[in-house]
Amino acid sequence: SYVLTQPPSVSVAPGQTARITCGGNNIGSKSVHWYQKKAGQAPVVVVSDDSDRPSGIPERFSGSNSGNTATLTISRVEVGDEADYYCHVWDSSTDHPPVIFGGGTKLTVL
Amino acid sequence: EVQLVQSGAEVKKPGESLKISCKGSGYRFTNYWIAWVRQMPGKGLEWMGSIYAGDSVTRYSPPFQGQVTISADKSISIVYLQWSSLKASDTAMYYCARCGGDCTGHFDYWGQGTLVTVSS
User: What is the pLDDT of residues B47-60, one digit of tens each?
Assistant: First the structure.
């Protein structure tokens, strides 16, 4: 089966840079999407297809993907960025569901 | 404006049936897939399955195959998620989400979520 591994938590001070990783076997060959999930709210896509930023998402959010690790980078972190972040890929192998989410990373802004 | 509006919170007893809904508006409903995503209390996101609203072709995640039914009524732009016999372990927040093309990409719009509580 294909597993996406995220750190359970990342902490950063306001104004600093947060990096949230998503590890998977040869994930660099797949398109990775990132969602922000705030408490009591629906998920919002903040980065799609590795590094595309949907309309309305601040430029502070960026993504990269290479080898076995995809990374969501949040620059100049704000208190309002505090949320759970999930990575997501589509994998067409037949031994597991094709839609795979990482376990999520809780971003705490100190 | 694209919107996915879900039905309200439900409280049910084990063994009862339930059907929750997700209504799409602001786009051509039949051109997109709608997925259902579960979030159990304190846990992460799990894909349950997806349906193409145009012809109701459905894909299920194996753990949910046979446990739920996903259907669509394109005449009223609604996708449903239903259970015939709920279990306490079905207690969760359920989100619908839209994806385009062949639904191998990202989910670009999400419903607000429907909280399902199953308790005796």
Answer: 999 999 999 999 99
